[in-house]
Each structure stands twice: as C-alpha cells, then as structure tokens.
C-alpha cells in the first residue's frame, strides 16, 4: 500500500522533526497547521512536507480539511499528530498491505510514552483509533474532545502494529492545561448523555467505534463525585498501572485529576441546564 501522511500541528518544533524523520519512506506529507509561531513550519518544509493553514476549531474538522484541500497524492492516508511516531514495524506492515475495496479505513493501536517509558498497563494498551483510511471514503466527526470515524462499522478493519504517542513531550504542565479544555468538552458530552435517554444503547459486537461510545455512556452514568476515584482505581489497580512503576502511578493520578475537572464542569453544566429548564417551565405557567 502506498500512502500519504496528514499531520496536525500547532507549535510542535519539539516533536515535528522526530515525527517526520520516521516518515522518510513516505513521498507525500501534508501538514495542517493552525498558526504555529515557532519553527514547526520551517522544519516541516525542510523535510519536504507541504503546509496548509486552518484556524483550529476541532480535530475532526482539521483532518477533514486536510483531506479536502491538501491535494493528497495517494489513495490511502495515514493520519498522525506531531507527537506521534511510526515505528519501522508499522511502516513495513503498511507498505506490505494490499488495499481492499470493501474497507474504508483501519483502526491502529498506540503506545503511550511517559518519560521515555511505555505505559503498557496504565496506558490501557491497546486502544484503537481510526488512523489509516481512503482519502475519499474516510471522514471524521467530533465527539467530546476527540474525533471518531464517520464510516459504517462494516467498512472498518484494524491492524495490530502500534505507533508511539509521546503525549507528554511538551511537559506535564502543558498536558494538564490542555486537559482543562478537554474536560470542558467531555463535561458537555456527559451533560448531553445524562439528559438524553436515547443515548443508552448496547454496543454492536465487534464494532470498535460502538464499543468506545458505549463505554463513554457507561462512564457518564458514574456519580460525578466518584469519577476521580473510580478512574484512579481502574487505571492503577484494575488495569495494573502499578506494574509501570512510578510513571504508572503518576499517569493514573493525572487522569484522576482530569476526571475531577470534568466532574466539576459537568456538575456546573447540569445545574445550569436544570435552572434554565425551571425558568422555562415557570414562564410557561405564568403565561397560562
């Protein structure tokens, strides 16, 4: 399979060289940049990548914009962020693949790296995302703070060779600051699920996207005050994050902090929604 690569960037000079160096086998690389002010673009251009600009609103829209306006040369596209790295094993697997007309995209697992250590247990490996797809048939939609594939489940497949995700390459402070924004998006999703009884459904067996959405629904049903504790216990004990040593404890604790932020924001949104609904009902009764 011959692929192009589409990468999202914003001030990624610390990561982009490593990402692009691992793609020296790819002859068509498109960067969708959202306004970098550091050396991201010059470094990308030194590697022969084409750069297009789009102001960031969400990840799905950025990827879809790159597919629509990036003048992609190859039929198949590998989707990456600048802090992600294709291993030689994944490269060899992709280049040896034979495209299937019945498949629009592939789920690919990732290894989360913290302080140069793979979080095999705390990182909940393997988790899959749609990262390889046909340039005309795979599109994305935004869900919470992330994106998922807008493709029928029967048209998706998966590969087992992972890429590396250096989630903390900008430092733990920036990770936490970024997850404040993510927590706000996740809180909105929780509030929506809790107010929509139709959101509760059984996942389709074997459908990775459906299973992920069902997991979010189940997570949304956990009492808000318990979410941080439940997340820590799940990651550190049930998923055996303790086997990753100090890095495993740190990551489990950070995820608990993230859940705490999400719970606070979700409670605020739910309270606001209840207040607004009460106001509408009161206004209706007054008019009647």
Q: Topology, pairings included?
A:
Layout: E1 3-9, H1 16-21, E2 29-33, H2 40-46, E3 50-53, H3 59-69, E4 76-81, E5 84-85, H4 88-96, E6 105-114, E7 117-118, E8 127-134, E9 140-143, E10 146-149, E11 156-158, E12 163-165, H5 172-194, H6 208-220, H7 227-238, H8 245-287
Parallel strand pairs: 1-2, 1-4, 2-3, 6-11, 6-12
Antiparallel strand pairs: 4-8, 5-12, 6-7, 6-8, 9-10
Helix pairs in contact: 5-8, 7-8
What does this structure look like?
This protein has 8 helices and 12 strands. By secondary structure, it is an alpha/beta fold. Helix 1 links the parallel strand 1 (3-9) and strand 2. The N and C termini lie far apart (67 Å).
Short overview:
The protein is of the alpha/beta class. It has helices at 16-21, 40-46, 59-69, 88-96, 172-194, 208-220, 227-238, 245-287, and strands spanning 3-9, 29-33, 50-53, 76-81, 84-85, 105-114, 117-118, 127-134, 140-143, 146-149, 156-158, 163-165. Helices cover 43% and strands 20% of the residues.
Q: What attributes characterize this protein structure?
A:
single chain, about 290 residues, alpha/beta, two-stranded antiparallel ribbon, 8 helices, globular
Order of helices and strands: EHEHEHEEHEEEEEEEHHHH
Quick one: overall form? globular
Give the overall average pLDDT. 86
Measured by DSSP, the beta-strand proportion falls in: 15-25%
User: How many β strands by DSSP?
Assistant: 12
* Helix content range: 40-55%
Which structural class do the helices and strands define? alpha/beta
Q: Count of helical segments?
A: 8
Distance between the termini: 67 Å
The biggest beta sheet is recorded as: 10 strands, mixed
Evaluate the radius of gyration.
20 Å
Unreliable runs: 197-205, 209-221
